């Protein structure tokens, strides 16, 4: 009994120390680690946040491995990365200066919704590039249909791409990370994986699943004492990438909670990744909303949603998607 009490007090001290350590990072900004020369795989690199992540890692001289289902857009991202690499090597320097070798960028067409494609592409990466140091699970889709209007195939697609794919990419690259006790896995989720809204049940469920996967894996790595492998969970509020075009909260509140600029979102995420921060929510109010959801009665949450206009914020987006689909069907003579 005495031992248990002693251990309990030690735990309390460790918890308090964790608060002190976390608080100190708000005062003294942690030093960012170098990723130069490290192999970084980014899924969904052909557009949106994936493309911006690629450009940020390129500026830090990482070796980029870009995965996307769209070959053309993926090559466009690769060309942007090559230009960044070239710019890094063109500033005026002394004649006798020795430049580090220019990093390379590799592109692969991969449908992360198909595990055979993930595993075969991962094998190609190991053979052609080398072992992976950083994995950015970024690829994501949205069906744009409420539950009863959403075809089963689209529900399955959303779950597979947004959640199941994380299992497969991680299973492909984690074994070597465990062997070397070195690596970093990033899960690009969403605030909609922390608290949900109406009309996008499949998307919210997939992001909740991705966060659950991430947290469980984080605990597994800690239990295995693999402190050289870091995990970062990225949970942004609505990002202005066009994925949820038309989504609107209450107009009086919107100026205080506008959609995030993709560049800002990625820069915040990069700061978290490069300082080994376990989780980043953007903007910071997302932390508070998530905490309040945990302690407030459900009816209180509903009242808050209605006040903010968050209860039906996706309805304009869903209406736009439905209208676009009807127009496409009319053009095709369906």
TrEMBL record:
Its main location: endoplasmic reticulum. Pfam families: adh_short (PF00106). It is an enzyme of class 1 (oxidoreductase). The keyword Transmembrane helix applies. It is found in: Endoplasmic reticulum membrane; Microsome membrane. Coiled coil: none annotated. Keywords: Endoplasmic reticulum, Membrane, Microsome, NADP, Oxidoreductase, Signal-anchor, Transmembrane, Transmembrane helix. It catalyses: all-trans-retinol + NADP(+) = all-trans-retinal + NADPH + H(+). It is a single-pass membrane protein. Pathway: Cofactor metabolism; retinol metabolism. Gene3D superfamilies: NAD(P)-binding Rossmann-like Domain (3.40.50.720). Its EC number is 1.1.1.300. One of its GO terms (molecular function) is all-trans-retinol dehydrogenase (NADP+) activity. InterPro entries: NAD(P)-bd_dom_sf, Sc_DH/Rdtase_CS, SDR_fam. One of its GO terms (cellular component) is endoplasmic reticulum membrane. Belongs to the short-chain dehydrogenases/reductases (SDR) family. This is NADP-retinol dehydrogenase. It comes from Takifugu rubripes. The gene is rdh10.
């Amino acid at each position: 009994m005495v031992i248990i009490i002693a251990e309990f007090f030690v735990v309390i001290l460790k918890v308090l120390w964790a608060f002190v350590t976390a608080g100190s990072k708000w005062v003294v900004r942690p030093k960012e680690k170098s990723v130069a020369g490290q192999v970084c795989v980014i899924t969904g690199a052909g557009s949106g946040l994936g493309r911006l992540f690629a450009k940020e890692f390129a500026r830090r001289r990482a070796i980029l491995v870009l995965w996307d289902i769209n070959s053309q857009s993926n090559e466009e991202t690769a060309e942007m990365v090559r230009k960044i690499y070239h710019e890094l090597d063109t500033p005026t320097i002394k004649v006798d200066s020795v430049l580090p070798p220019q990093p390379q960028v590799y592109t692969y067409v991969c449908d992360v919704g198909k595990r055979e494609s993930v595993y075969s592409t991962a094998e190609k990466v190991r053979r052609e590039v080398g072992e992976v140091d950083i994995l950015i699970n970024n690829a994501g889709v949205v069906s744009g249909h409420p539950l009863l209007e959403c075809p089963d195939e689209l529900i399955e697609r959303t779950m597979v791409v947004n959640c199941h794919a994380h299992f497969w990419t991680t299973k492909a690259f984690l074994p070597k990370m465990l062997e070397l006790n070195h690596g970093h896995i990033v899960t690009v989720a969403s605030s909609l994986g922390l608290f949900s809204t109406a009309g996008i049940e499949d998307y919210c469920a997939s992001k909740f699943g991705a966060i659950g996967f991430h947290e469980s894996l984080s605990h597994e790595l800690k239990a295995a004492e693999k402190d050289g492998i870091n995990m970062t969970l990225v949970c942004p509020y609505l990002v202005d990438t066009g994925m949820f075009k038309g989504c609107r909260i209450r107009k009086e509140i919107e100026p205080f909670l506008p959609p995030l600029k993709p560049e800002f979102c990625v820069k915040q995420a990069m700061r978290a990744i490069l300082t080994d921060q376990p989780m980043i929510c953007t903007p910071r109010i997302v932390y508070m909303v998530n905490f309040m959801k945990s302690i407030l009665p459900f009816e209180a949450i509903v009242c808050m949603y209605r006040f903010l206009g968050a209860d039906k914020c996706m309805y304009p987006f869903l209406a736009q998607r439905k209208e676009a689909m009807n127009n496409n069907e009319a053009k095709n003579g369906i």
